[in-house]
Structure formats: C-alpha cells, structure tokens
Specification:
10 strands, about 25% strand, alpha/beta, Rossmann fold, two-stranded antiparallel ribbon, LabA, 7 helices
C-alpha cells in the first residue's frame, strides 16, 4: 500500500497511540517507527501531538517530547487543562484534534500519502477531505484490543487500515516498569 516515490507525512495523536500500544501490551520505539516509514516512502514530516501539564515541576512526558524534537519529529504541544469532575476527581484535558487537522490540511497539497496514528472517529471528516484532495490516507490503530481503539467509521473511511499489533515486531519494544508507563497517561 506504499510506493517508494510517494511523499509521506506522519500525524501521530500521541495520547491515542500510547493508549492503543498500552492496550496491546507494548511500547513504541519512535526511532524504529520513523525508520520504518522512511523506508516506505519519501517522508517529508513526522508530526507528534500532545498536551503537556505546565504547572507541574516535572512532566513524565517531557523526556519523550525532548527526544522526539531532537530526533526529527515536529512537535506540536499545548498546555493541558486541569479540572475537577462532578465526583471531585482531578482530570486533565488536552485534545489536539484541531491542531492535527489544520496541519494536515495545510500540508495536503504537498504530499501524496498521510499516515494517521489515531483511532479517533472525530478524524473521519479530515480523512474524507484529504481524499477529496487526492491524498491517500492510511490509519494506524488497533481492533485487537477490548474494546477496539479505532472507531469503525474511521477505519472504513481510510484507504488503508494498518493494525498496530502487526507493527509490533517492527516498531515495538517491551513495556518498561510501571513508573515509566505514565508517560502519555496525562493525555488519555
């Protein structure tokens, strides 16, 4: 489903990809992920979207964000918003859908193929719009978790669905200990 001469761009919904990999029991090795898609085509950009807790002295995702930034990923971040729900629980909200959508639409005239790492059904209209502009769209997520991490309408709209579990041997590494597993939990 990939052609060596096509111009690729990766759009990674950080919290969604983290949750999907966690549900499958492995961590993503982002160096291997980038290498895999450089091998599949002419990669122009690899975007990674995540919200950050700005008020904490230390954010568990900060080392990943810094590593990605220094290793060829275009980082798109914004401050996460904290609130207390109706049961008095502290919650964190950090949706990056609009930022991802705007970047994809702006880049569409210069790319042939978008690889979207998200199962969020809210991206179905984006995929449809990119396709109308002649851009092929592959979506990476999983149907093998319980419940499935990909919305059925997004999977059906995509030109190609890539099962994340089938990439495990290529881009995965065993999960680290539990203290390191909270890296993207702030965005889930």
């Amino acid at each position: 489903m990939f052609y060596k001469d096509e111009r690729l761009a990766l759009f990674i919904d950080g919290s969604n990809l983290y949750a999907a990999a966690k549900a499958l029991g492995f961590d993503i090795d982002y160096k291997l992920l980038r290498q895999e898609f450089v091998r599949r085509g002419k990669m122009l950009r690899a975007f990674y979207y995540t919200a950050l807790l700005e008020n904490d002295d230390y954010s568990p995702i900060r080392p990943l964000v810094d590593w990605l930034h220094y290793n060829g990923f275009t980082m798109v971040t914004k401050p996460a918003k904290e609130y207390t729900d109706s049961q008095g629980r502290r919650k964190v909200k950090g949706n990056m859908d609009i930022e991802l959508t705007v970047d994809a639409m702006e880049l569409a005239p210069r790319i042939d193929h978008v690889v979207l790492f998200s199962g969020d059904g809210d991206f179905r209209p984006l995929v449809e719009s990119l396709q109308r502009q002649g851009v092929r769209v592959s979506v990476v997520s999983t149907i093998r978790s319980q419940p499935p991490m990909i919305a059925d309408e997004l999977r059906r709209q995509a030109d190609n669905f890539i099962e994340l579990d089938e990439l495990r041997e290529v881009i995965g590494r065993p999960p680290r200990d539990q203290s390191d597993r909270n890296v993207e939990a702030v965005n889930s």
